C-alpha cells in the first residue's frame, strides 16, 4: 500500500519537469512547453503529456522523453501503477459526464443551431439601454454585477502575484478611476480578509542560533516575551501573495460565463437563449475579437428550509431521533436538492463543451473581457474594435 507521503514524493518529481495546474486522481491538468493551458498529463501506466495543438508536438515529445527517463530512474513501474490506479467510482463518474457532453453535442446542439439569434436582438432587449460611449461600459458592468465592497481583480492576464497588488481593489475604489482598469476582470470576487492574499501582520517565534544564542531580528517590527517562556515572539509584516487563485475566492462564484470561438454570433445567441431557460442572463460583452462573453447567475446553493428547534438540539438523543423521524421526508428532499446542485455544477462545463463553448470558463476563478477598452492583438497592439456591452441586466 502506497501512503500519501510516497504519492506526494512522486508528484514532486513531476513538478520539476511539468507545470501541473490541478490533479485529478490518475490524470492532471497541465501547461505544455509552449504555454497551452489545456494540456493533460496522463498518469496511469507510464506518464505522458498530451496537448491538442499540433505546433508543439516536437516539444511535447521531448518533454515526455525527459519524463520517462526521470520516472524510470527513480520509481519502480509497478509502484507507479499502484499509486495512480484509477478508482472505479471515478471512472464511472467520468463516463457519465462524457455521456452528458456527447448528448449536448449530438442531440441538443443540432436543435439549437437552426434558430440563430442576431446581435441586434440582445441590444434591443437589454434592460439598460446601451447608447453611450463604449469606453464607459466598465462603469456599468462593475457596479451592476458586484457590490461596492466586493474585492475584485482587473488587469491583463499576466498581472497576478506580489508585483501586481495594484490589480486588486474594492469595486468602489475601481470606480474612482478615470479609465478602464484593464482588458480582463476576474469573475469571482476575492476574500480581502484572507491573510495570505494581502500584506498582513504575523506573529511568530523569533529564530535563535543554537550555537551563538543570537536572535535573528530581520523583519521584526516589535517583539515580546510570553509569560513564563524563555523565547521571544516577534511581529512581522509579511508580503501578501496577491495571486488570482481559487483558494482566495470569497464564497461561491456568483456567475458563470459562456464563450465560443467556433460558433458565429448568431449561433452563439441560440445557445445563450437556451441557457436563459434555467439561468438569469446578466450581461453580454462583445470581446472585440471573434466571440461574445455571456454572463449568467451561477446556480444557487439550496437554502435550508427546515431547522431543528433549539429545544430539540439541547434535548436528549431520543428527542433528536424522534424529531428526525417526524421530518424525515423533508430532510431527504433537502439532501436531494443539495445533490442535484453539486451534480449541476459538475455537468455544466461538459454541457457547455458539447455546445461548442469553452469549458475553461467554468474554472473557480476565470477571467472575462472587461468592456470599456480597445481590444489588443497577440502582440499587445490595440486594434480598432471596442470591448463593449451588448446586453446588461444589473443585479444590483
What's the topology here?
Elements (H helix, E strand, L loop, with lengths): L3 H14 L1 E6 L2 E5 L7 E4 L5 E3 L6 H18 L2 H7 L4 H25 L6 H7 L12 H8 L5 E5 L12 E3 H4 L9 E3 L13 E6 L14 E5 L8 E6 L16 E4 L6 H11 L5 E6 L5 E6 L12 H4 L3 H10 L1 H27 L12 E3 L3 E4 L5 E11 L4
Antiparallel strand pairs: 1-2, 2-3, 3-4, 5-6, 5-7, 7-14, 8-10, 9-10, 11-13, 12-13, 12-16, 15-16
Helix pairs in contact: 4-11
Backbone structural class: alpha+beta
Instruction: Point out poorly predicted stretches.
Output: none
Q: Level of helix content?
A: 25-40%
Gap between N and C termini: 54 Å
* Number of strand elements: 16
The shape is: globular
Largest sheet, strands/sense/barrel: 5 strands, antiparallel
> How many structural units, i.e. domains?
3
How are the strands ordered across the major sheet?
11-13-12-16-15
Q: In percent terms, what proportion of residues is strand?
A: 15-25%
Q: Whole-number average pLDDT?
A: 87
Rg, rounded, reads 26 Å
Q: What sequence of helices (H) and strands (E) makes up the elements?
A: HEEEEHHHHHEEHEEEEEHEEHHHEEE
Alpha plus pi helix count? 11
Amino acid at each position: 500500500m502506497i501512503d500519501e507521503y510516497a504519492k506526494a514524493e512522486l508528484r514532486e518529481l513531476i513538478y520539476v519537469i511539468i507545470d501541473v495546474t490541478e490533479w485529478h486522481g490518475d490524470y492532471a491538468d497541465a501547461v505544455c512547453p509552449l504555454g497551452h493551458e489545456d494540456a493533460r498529463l496522463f498518469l496511469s501506466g507510464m506518464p505522458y503529456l498530451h496537448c491538442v495543438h499540433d505546433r508543439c508536438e516536437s516539444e511535447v515529445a521531448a518533454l515526455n522523453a525527459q519524463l520517462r527517463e526521470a520516472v524510470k530512474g527513480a520509481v519502480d513501474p509497478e509502484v507507479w501503477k499502484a499509486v495512480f490506479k484509477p478508482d472505479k467510482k471515478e471512472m464511472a463518474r467520468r463516463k457519465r459526464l462524457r455521456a452528458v457532453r456527447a448528448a449536448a453535442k449530438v442531440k441538443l446542439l443540432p436543435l439549437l443551431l437552426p434558430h440563430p439569434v442576431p446581435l441586434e436582438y440582445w441590444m434591443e432587449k437589454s434592460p439598460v439601454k446601451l447608447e453611450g460611449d463604449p469606453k464607459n461600459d466598465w462603469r456599468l458592468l462593475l457596479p451592476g454585477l458586484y457590490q461596492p465592497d466586493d474585492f475584485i481583480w482587473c488587469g491583463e492576464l499576466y498581472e497576478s502575484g506580489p508585483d501586481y497588488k495594484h490589480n486588486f481593489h474594492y469595486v468602489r475604489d475601481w470606480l474612482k478611476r478615470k479609465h478602464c482598469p484593464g482588458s480582463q476582470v476576474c469573475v469571482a470576487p476575492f476574500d480581502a480578509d484572507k491573510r495570505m492574499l494581502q500584506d498582513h501582520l504575523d506573529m511568530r517565534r523569533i529564530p535563535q542560533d543554537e550555537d551563538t544564542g543570537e536572535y535573528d531580528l530581520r523583519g521584526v517590527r516589535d517583539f515580546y516575551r510570553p509569560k513564563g517562556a524563555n523565547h521571544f515572539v516577534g511581529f512581522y509584516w509579511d508580503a501578501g501573495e496577491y495571486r488570482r487563485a481559487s483558494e482566495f475566492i470569497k464564497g461561491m462564484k456568483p456567475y458563470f460565463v459562456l464563450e465560443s470561438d467556433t460558433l458565429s454570433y448568431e449561433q452563439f445567441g441560440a445557445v445563450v437563449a437556451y441557457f436563459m431557460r434555467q439561468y438569469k442572463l446578466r450581461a453580454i460583452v462583445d470581446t472585440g475579437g471573434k466571440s461574445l462573453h455571456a454572463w449568467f447567475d451561477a446556480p444557487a446553493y439550496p437554502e435550508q428550509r427546515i431547522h431543528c428547534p433549539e429545544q430539540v438540539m439541547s434535548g436528549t438523543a431520543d428527542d433528536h431521533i424522534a424529531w428526525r423521524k417526524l421530518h424525515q421526508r423533508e430532510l431527504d428532499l433537502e439532501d436531494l436538492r443539495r445533490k442535484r446542485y453539486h451534480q449541476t455544477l459538475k455537468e455544466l462545463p461538459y454541457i457547455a463543451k458539447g455546445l461548442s463553448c469553452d469549458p475553461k470558463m467554468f474554472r473557480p476563478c476565470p477571467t472575462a473581457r472587461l468592456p470599456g477598452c480597445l481590444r489588443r492583438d497577440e502582440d499587445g497592439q490595440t486594434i480598432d474594435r471596442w470591448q463593449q456591452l451588448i446586453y446588461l441586466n444589473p443585479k444590483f
